[in-house]
Amino acid sequence: MAVRWLCSLFGKPFDGGKRMDNGGPQQQQHMEQQQPYHPQHPAMMRLYEVQKEVASLGPQVCTFSGLQNDRDYKRLERELTRLLLEVDQVDTEGKPELQGARKRAAQEVEGLLRYLEENATHPSRLAIEDLSNEARALVDDRVVAPQRAGGVAEINDELVDALQGLILKLTQVKTEGRVPLRKARYRALTRLCAIQDVVEGRTQQQTLSLPLSGETHEAVHRINQVMVKVSVARSQLVALLMGLSGRDSCAHLSRLLTEMQVELDALDVSGNAAIRNYRKQVVEEINGLLKHVDLEVEGDDTRRYDLAQNNSIREIEAVRAHVVHLREGILRHCAVGDLSFRPKAELQSLLTHLDQVDTAKNPCIREARRRAVVEVQAVITFLDLREALARRQPGPAEHPAHRAVWLVLGSLSDLQAQVLGFDGKRVDKSYMMLEELLTKQLLALDAVDPHGDEMTKVARKQAVKFAQNILNYLDMKTDEWEY
């Protein structure tokens, strides 16, 4: 390994220390100057030691997903700076090849320093942190702080919706394929999804019908006592996941939850089905909390944030590739006026396939599936409109406003064909032209006066929705979203 690395620094193959035959003293002297220094040379040995340290730090730098104020960032920065100073102090004896080796070693360390800083200060990383802070403030205000003050956590649909909104925003953060950014987004998403699952899965205390026997009353009372503990544990778990817990640990919380399970198992509720069912629900909630405990450290030793390797994503990508193939065929036939190629049944089967894809409650996979569904539906609506336009036979008594709506729909069909085939970016002139033309069609529909004709009102409303869907689809195709 040492020989290979040293030779890569010199940029030439290593000859194993052998001397080649030569044609004279001058040529021999020139070749001696060009040959690599032996690995036992003091400068080479020192550079090799530096390389070993760089090799151990490299993976840590390439997967670091924190910020500049994190302890690990400061440690990595300190270690790399030290290595850079040590490389600078290597004595090259004025030899060009040693100087080249030292320069390349310095460049490698500088590259890691630059990569570390770029990821920690990347706008997407800062956006992830801002959203995480917003979520942290939300759960602290609604769940953690009230529980610590001896009150009741404010868990309602408003909180769940707010968490869902933050999750959606996180899925839209672009990572540019960088592992540290993917890892940071994955960690933030898994925690928010876990918190959402925790607050949605809470069990309410049950009021059972009277009269109850003394034994039955005692069992319900003890289950309710455990429910109070579960409520506290829920807040502790939320605090752990959001980094709001200064003293609690996963191990401590896991031990408390396990003790609650043991306490519930010891209850004799065999004589009452309602109480038995109540206990079962509480046990299930405890199990639900336990499965999220390990998330406090998840992301440090996992590669699940690389969704390109996810089987569900692979299924979705296979469907998208099939859609592209069908779409290209449809557009080719439509370009020559041939409407015979209508693979609607095949497209419908793709929708069914997408509906069966397991998202595992992962918001990124859910979004990838949603976008694939939109792509399929866009092709289906294009075929439906083309077919409707081909079948249309307006009569002499058709309302002028109704005819005007159909004229706009004809223009929208042509524009949709261009949108389906568009494969550019928002800065492209063709994108801006399509956006402008679609907006003009919306204005044309807005100018149609139905004069009280109900059929025209319905047709115009549908045409407006159709035009907006095309605009939304064009926007989706160019937003550079990634999973």
Describe the structure in your own words:
The structure is a single chain. The protein is mainly α and 483 residues long. Among the domains are: 214-297, Methane Monooxygenase Hydroxylase, Chain G, domain 1, CATH 1.20.58.120; 307-478, BAG domain (Methane Monooxygenase Hydroxylase, Chain G, domain 1). It contains 17 helices and no strands. It has helices at residues 2-10, 25-34, 42-63, 71-88, 96-120, 123-148, 157-171, 179-200, 214-241, 250-265, 273-293, 311-335, 344-355, 363-391, 400-421, 429-446, 454-477. Helix 6 runs antiparallel to helix 7, helix 9 packs parallel to helix 11 and helix 12 (311-335) packs antiparallel against helix 13 (344-355).
Order of SSEs: HHHHHHHHHHHHHHHHH
Radius of gyration: 33 Å
User: What's the number of helices?
Assistant: 17
Largest sheet: none
Overall residue-averaged pLDDT value: 81
Assign the structural class, choosing from mainly alpha, mainly beta, alpha/beta, alpha+beta, or little secondary structure: mainly alpha
CATH topology term of the domain at 307-478: Methane Monooxygenase Hydroxylase, Chain G, domain 1
User: Which stretches are low in confidence, meaning pLDDT under 50 for 5 or more residues running?
Assistant: 1-35, 299-303
Shape: flat
CATH-derived architecture of the domain at 307-478? Up-down Bundle
Give the N-to-C terminal Cα separation.
Answer: 37 Å
